[in-house]
């Protein structure tokens, strides 16, 4: 499973930070950061989700008020949102 995070879309509500510890507050920018992610395009970050964190990653995506977080299964099918 992988997660994509569009940091440009983020509005800094930090709900994802409360749901998965891979997201951290960046108060200087007023946005969340996704630790361990690789920037694959400008402000688009991707990382693999460990099996033990799949539930938390999905929930972080579900609570994002602007749909800046998308979760995909191993076959590339979008799971959330």
Using brief descriptors, characterize the structure shown:
single chain; 81 residues; alpha+beta; Alpha-Beta Plaits; 5-stranded antiparallel β-sheet; two-stranded antiparallel sheet; 2 helices; 19% helix; globular
Q: Would you mind describing this structure in some detail?
A:
The protein is α+β, with helices and mostly antiparallel strands and 81 residues long. It has helices spanning 15-19, 54-63; strands at residues 2-6, 23-26, 31-34, 38-41, 44-48, 69-72, 78-80. The protein has one domain (2-80): Alpha-Beta Plaits (2-Layer Sandwich). The strands form two sheets. It has a five-stranded antiparallel beta sheet. It is globular and about 35 Å long. The mean pLDDT is 96.
Concise synopsis of the structure shown:
This protein has two helices and seven strands. It is of the alpha+beta class.
Secondary structure blueprint with pairings:
Elements: E1 2-6, H1 15-19, E2 23-26, E3 31-34, E4 38-41, E5 44-48, H2 54-63, E6 69-72, E7 78-80
Antiparallel strand pairs: 1-5, 1-6, 2-3, 4-5, 6-7
InterPro entries: Fe-S_cluster_ET
Keywords: Electron transport, Iron, Iron-sulfur, Metal-binding, Transport
Protein name: Ferredoxin
| Class based on secondary structure composition and strand pairing | alpha+beta
How far is the N terminus from the C terminus? Answer: 14 Å
What is the level-2 CATH architecture name?
A: 2-Layer Sandwich
Mean pLDDT: 96
**Integer tally of domains:** 1
Strand order of the largest sheet: 4-5-1-6-7
Number of strands: 7
């Amino acid at each position: 499973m992988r997660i994509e995070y569009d940091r440009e879309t983020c509005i800094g509500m930090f709900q994802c930070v409360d749901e998965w510890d891979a997201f951290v507050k960046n108060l200087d920018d007023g946005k969340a950061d996704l630790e361990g992610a690789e920037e694959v395009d400008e402000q688009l970050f991707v990382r693999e989700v460990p099996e033990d964190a799949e539930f938390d990653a999905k929930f972080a995506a579900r609570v994002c008020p602007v749909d800046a977080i998308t979760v995909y299964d191993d076959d590339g099918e979008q799971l959330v949102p």
